[in-house]
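[audit] Reproducing an earlier prediction to check determinism. Same input, same settings, fresh worker. If the tokens differ from the archived copy the diff job will pick it up downstream; this log only records the rerun itself.
[audit] input (100 residues):
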Amino acid sequence: AIPRDFLKLHTHVTLVADVMFVNNIPFLVTLSRGIKFVTAEHVRSRTAKQLAKSIKRVMQLYGRAGMIVQTVLMDMEFDKTVDELSERTVVNTSAAREHV
């Protein structure tokens, strides 16, 4: 179980997300700021539907722990997921040559 004091400090979570490749196989990798919890999930494709589904799955993981993903920071590749994710959280995509 997660200690109550920890949950009080980290109720609202900010995630950073990106697609990374290992041997040409794409993975969605997320990191929570403050907590430094990392997730990695194989994604079959980089379509808006697949990426949004994977990010929602990560958000549900935090939700089961009693946390709320308040903000997700991503690069321009994720612009196509904003409509599907923005009803649940603030989505911030960076411009070219910016880093999250």
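[audit] rerun output stored. Observation attached for the diff report: The chain has three helices and five strands.
[audit] end
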